[in-house]
Structures
1.
Amino acid sequence: MSFFKKFFTKEKEEDLDKGLEKTKSSLFSKITKAVAGKSTVDEGFLDELEGILVSADVGLETTIKIIDRLEERVAKDKYINTTELNTLLKDEIVTLLSENRTENFEDYVVPEDKKPFVILVVGVNGVGKTTTIGKLAHQYKKNGYGVVLGAGDTFRAAAVDQLQIWSERVGCDFYSKGMHSDPAAVAFETVQHAIKNDLDIAIIDTAGRLHTKMNLMRELSKIKRSVSKALDGAPHEVLLVLDASTGQNAFEQCSKFTEATEVSDLALTKLDGTAKGGVVLGISDQFQIPIRYIGVGEGIEQLQIFNKQAFVDSLFSGEME
Ligand SMILES: Nc1nc2c(ncn2[C@@H]2O[C@H](COP(=O)(O)OP(=O)(O)OP(=O)(O)O)[C@@H](O)[C@H]2O)c(=O)[nH]1
């Protein structure tokens, strides 16, 4: 059985379909309507498509890329009926996602030679950072890993408390030095805690305040330095969490964080509550950082490993019949 079939259960597929409903009805049903009955791809259609993609927060640059490619393919392949055009569009979107190193990765697994595997989670307040950390810890625990959560967002009492609640819910370790403690010290000691207790994974929360780029840069590099002092080669993953429903704001945050630190992976949350699912395409294209996870609901199981084919299939599903 292929990985895709084994891992992508019926339940997950339904979650994804439901999670993408709003994007689907705003973005892709508009596309399908524009496509319907067309036998040539003319200027008018391309203009219409451009407008639809831009309004779904795909971003202008990425939209132009998609349109250009479509034009090229259509000229080359001497097109076309409606279903073929739809397939071409799907192909181009999957290709675009592949070019951005968004490879399908298999299950919640970390390399054996990196123990503890240290994940630094960054992003502004309210994007779903704590929830994403909790969901991640849950998945790793389910796969038999020992996990500790480090409360590195020490600026708000609620952040520390919420993380503790998640650790209790998941049944994993929790490390905190309380509110107003030095986040770099928390990060250092969380890694030490993992080493001492023979744990496999340390997931460290950070505050990610965006007041100035310099401050953010200083804060994150201090945390990174202290993590690498605790364990050579760590952090192994810097995960930036973005709220997909904020559309263009998510682009801006991604830009600020990637300027401030090296981000290795992205999680896009709250796709279920938004029609702006197009940001997935735009962000992965513009920043060339793999999208690793998508949040499709508040439930503990509703953090999915991003699968580009499943994503595109779901977006286009139920259309064109
Ligand atoms: N619908 C939906 N809600 C989500 C998702 N991810 C997180 N949320 C909700 O978003 C809200 C904010 O999530 P938090 O995890 O508290 O966000 P945070 O970034 O840690 O923000 P603070 O803790 O407020 O700093 C919560 O109500 C979550 O349940 C998602 O994928 N879908």
2.
Amino acid sequence: MMQSEIKPIIEVKGVSKFFGEKTALDNINLSIKKGEFVTILGPSGCGKTTLLRLIAGFQTASEGVIRIAGEEITQTPPHKRPVNTVFQKYALFPHLNVYDNIAFGLKLKKKPKDTVLKKVKAALKMVGMTDYEYRDVNSLSGGQQQRVAIARAIVNEPEVLLLDEPLAALDLKMRKDMQMELKEMHKTLGITFVYVTHDQEEALTLSDTIVVMSEGRIQQIGTPTDIYNEPINSFVADFIGESNILNGVMVKDKLVHFCDRDFECVDEGFGENTPVDVVIRPEDLYIFPVSDMAQLRGTVQSCIFKGVHYEMVVLCHGYEFVVQDYHAFKAGTEVGMLVKPFDIHIMKKERICNTFEGKLIDETHVEFLGCEFECAPVDLQKVPLGDVLVDVDFGKINLLDNAEDGMLTGEVKFILYKGNHYHLTVWSDWDENVFVDTNDVWDDGDRVGISIAPEDIRVRVKQEER
Ligand SMILES: Nc1ncnc2c1ncn2[C@@H]1O[C@H](COP(=O)(O)OP(=O)(O)OP(=O)(O)O)[C@@H](O)[C@H]1O
């Protein structure tokens, strides 16, 4: 059957979830095909567990519709949905042995004893735990307990298996083994797996389709290769594997400028002289002793062995490039670098400065982000009092160690290193993102004060929306 002919088993349409003021999910649209292995991937707090819980029925959507196998189940309780969930914590009954844990659901449904026996044995075989049926679950290792949890979920023959970071509590070796086994199980069972993880490598290894989420929204849906090779924006590029992400300017079709020179690339349709993000994977930079062939010349800052390859940081035109190669170039070495047009990925910038909705109060005061800011005098003939837009450049937002010293406060949520500076997303306590370019080093989760000088606040007319 053609891929496109396969009916969706799960349809999520316009789904949002609010917890009080907090938007955990914002207009999610997702269609999952029968038999697919779909991974929902994203950093902590992006809403992936909430989405899974809505599909499972442990929580209800604030807006939108969820269908499973063609039936609307938005308000259907969990036990009436054709799904089973495996959680990160094994959630086994400690007073029951392995057999009784797995048989629990079947016994509840009053299935005949010999059917229960047959099904439990088959499930145990599937997870590689034959002969463990009479063991006390407390005597099992973490990995074995998780296998029992999976057996308990699949014994009910659900149409969809939901897995919420099921391997997160296991050590690295066990996790890798279990990943392979899960993939095998998926193939053998032929049912749909919806898998939640924050581990990009796990997502790339396991999935047919990856759904990348950030801040309650879907950023990109695609196959692992699509997502890795053609990330849609710098967030996805950074989240999926390591990348060099630089500010550049698309000069014209197939020509991009960064690091003080033009590079041929394959991208088109960005217009002329358009600011863009340029993404180059560390393995796509060729590094060699400096020669005329070099497009970029730089000095190696550090070189560490990573097991198979070396990872080097090369300082070049004030930008730090991460380069991976099988050959080591020692710190201090002058090197040349080359990148093929095909390996330069161009991404549209989602924004080039902060734009906030605000209210002009008088000639020198404007309200936005929940505060009243002093601004440079505004010509009231051109910009009347009332609703306005306020632009502030990324580099003109000051972050302060002492949160109380700011005009408002926030939390550093996402850090992107752009070769010669950091681009931060700060979630303000006014529940709006503030984007900041800085050379200072901040950590994810840092509480900060935010201040803006009056001369850096640009007020403009808010165009009537059509
Ligand atoms: N019951 C709740 N009440 C209030 N806020 C909640 C509740 N559940 C989740 N949230 C908030 O919704 C957002 C999304 O949470 P969710 O658990 O779905 O994220 P996640 O991507 O699964 O993160 P993690 O990997 O850390 O579990 C978070 O900001 C979280 O604090």
